[in-house]
Design a protein that fits this description.
Blueprint lengths: L8 H4 L2 H13 L4 H11 L2 E3 L2 E3 L5 H9 L3 H19 L2 E11 L25 H14 L3 E6 L8 H13 L9 E5 L5 H9 L5 E2 L7 H7 L8 H5 L1 H7 L5 E4 L7 H19 L5 E3 L20 H14 L4 E4 L5 H11 L2 E3 L32 H10 L3 E3 L3 H4 L6 H7 L3 H19 L3 H14 L6 H15 L9
Parallel strand pairs: 3-4, 3-10, 3-11, 4-5, 6-7, 7-8, 8-9, 9-10
Antiparallel strand pairs: 1-2
The structure holds iron/sulfur cluster (SF4) (2 copies).
Length: about 475
């Protein structure tokens, strides 16, 4: 029986509720009157300086996703762009993954790190190797990492993860620093989440992979991850452990996308109903080729148009939740979906254990890769590409650094301070990147962009302060200014 506030996975992700939702959506997919009402409800409303969005329930959003009328789909895209523009402007936050270990006791059938894959070499970084990786990442210009590790209580116990986090935060190479470490490790106990919280992590990320319980159990035939309820209830334990920022995700291609879409929104509604805070981010990965993995065996793969529609509908349904796309997607696809709601992308990524240090931007080790990287450009190329398209690459970690966790983004929106906060923060962190790491061409494009964009900070005093900070960064002075 569906109960959004239940602490049991099978009740807050109730299978019958999803099936009823899909039936309702199918029945109403051509109901223009209803769709019009849903779009009106979701549209941004302005009161003074404050812009607010109501978001949508999983049922309402599923109707939009089911709609096949090209004219209406254009309206859905237009609304998604409008919401993205209202809250995220042209800013795109940059991050990189850092793989710590590919030892894993699970048997996820879509992942090359599964226990039975004997072809892949197993590797776990030492603290010295982590130091080298982090220096390489800092020298690229990264400030925000997502650490990734397989589940293995012997090789990768929580103590190892905590030690790695500590090492990463401690490295200050030249002007570099990793200012926010997001953590993507297996579902664990409240006690371990408390330890991660105390270690100062940013977001705790755990992909559900699929919300369909039966498929979930087949796709995870053995190992601790086989337990659907333990995995699905992990975010509740993380929040109980004090972590305010959690990141959801499904792996599109494993099961039917409409089912996953309703499931992930129900999960978001559950977190909001129980903890008062929805997910900080939603990731939208698709199954990719890797060692021992052929994506063609998963018959639920989705094309680029469907993928774009999913992203637009998530943007409309949960307007305050960041949305992440990785280098699994190629340049063309990333370009297509960026304006529809993506707020964070990775750049210059390596998805192998120890993939950064000792390699040139063109070299890329494949032996321990978790998946094929489709977008293989360097961070500098990605930054320039974003700016050429009119986006502002941002390395901002200000909220985390100022202790603005949980629903802080919504708080910024509610007092109408995004443009006075996120905007100058994006420009100042971009200036750091340009001064310390960019190629001359990227620097020239970026400095022209900053000169233009700084004029769009509405508060005059703040704009003036930001201009002074920008000068100080350019002249090689202090870094890490933030509002
Ligand atoms: S997805 Fe994670 S848990 Fe599953 S095999 Fe890969 S590393 Fe292990
Ligand atoms: S100020 Fe906060 S909400 Fe805005 S971009 Fe920076 S971290 Fe994100």
């Amino acid at each position: 029986m569906y109960d959004v506030k239940s602490m049991k996975a099978e009740e807050f992700i109730d299978d019958q509720e999803i099936l009823d939702t899909l039936e309702y959506a199918e029945k109403n997919k051509n109901n223009r009157e209803l769709i019009g009402q849903i779009l009106d409800k979701a549209a941004p409303k302005k009161t003074g300086r404050v812009v607010e969005c109501a978001g949508l329930s999983h049922r309402e959003a599923s109707v939009l996703l089911a709609c096949e009328d090209p004219e209406v789909i254009e309206k859905i895209y237009a609304l998604a762009r409008q919401i993205k523009e209202a809250f995220y402007g042209d800013r795109i936050v940059m991050f990189a993954p850092l793989y710590l270990s590919n030892y894993c006791v699970n048997q996820c059938v879509y992942c090359p790190y599964h226990l039975k894959n004997k072809e892949i070499p197993r590797k776990k970084l030492t603290q010295e190797e982590i130091r080298q990786e982090v220096i390489a990442l800092q020298d690229m210009g990264h400030k925000r990492l997502a650490i990734e590790s397989g589940e293995d209580p012997v090789n990768n116990p929580i103590e190892y993860i905590l030690e790695c986090i500590n090492t990463i935060y401690s490295i200050k190479h030249k002007n570099g620093a990793i200012r926010r470490v997001n953590v993507n490790i297996a579902a664990t106990t409240v006690e371990n989440y408390k330890k991660l919280h105390d270690a100062g992590i940013g977001t705790y990320i755990l992909f559900q992979e699929t919300y369909h319980k039966e498929s979930y159990e087949k796709l995870h035939p053995a190992g601790p991850k086989h337990n659907y309820a333990y995995h699905t209830e992990a975010m509740d334990r993380a929040m109980e452990g004090g972590i305010d920022d959690v990141g959801l995700g499904v792996l599109f291609g494993l099961d039917k996308y409409k089912y996953e879409f309703a499931g992930i929104l129900m999960h978001a509604e559950h977190l909001e109903a129980v903890h008062g805070v929805g997910p900080h981010t939603i990731s939208v990965p698709r199954v990719k080729k890797a060692s021992d993995i052929d994506p063609n065996v998963f018959d639920n793969s989705i094309d680029d148009d469907t993928f774009a529609k999913i992203i637009a509908c998530i943007r409309i349904a949960v307007p305050y939740t960041g949305m992440i796309i990785s280098t699994r997607e190629n340049e063309t696809c990333r370009e297509k979906v960026m304006g529809l709601g993506i707020s964070q992308i990775s750049g210059g990524s390596r998805t192998s254990v120890g993939g950064y240090a000792g390699y040139t931007p063109e070299e890329r080790p494949h032996d321990t890769e978790q998946f094929d990287v489709s977008d293989q450009r360097s961070l500098d190329e990605v930054v320039k590409w974003l700016m050429d398209m009119g986006y502002i690459p941002s390395f901002c970690t200000a909220c985390y650094r100022e202790g603005r966790t949980g629903d802080r983004f919504m708080a910024l929106c509610k007092v109408g301070q995004i443009q006075n906060c996120c905007h100058p923060n994006a420009l100042m962190t971009l200036q750091e990147y340009l001064t310390d790491y960019a190629s001359p061409e990227t620097r020239a494009v970026g400095e022209a962009l900053i000169a233009r964009e700084i004029q769009n900070v509405p508060d005059l005093k703040r704009r003036q302060r930001a201009i002074e900070y920008l000068d100080e960064i350019k002249n090689g002075g202090k870094r890490d200014f933030r509002f």
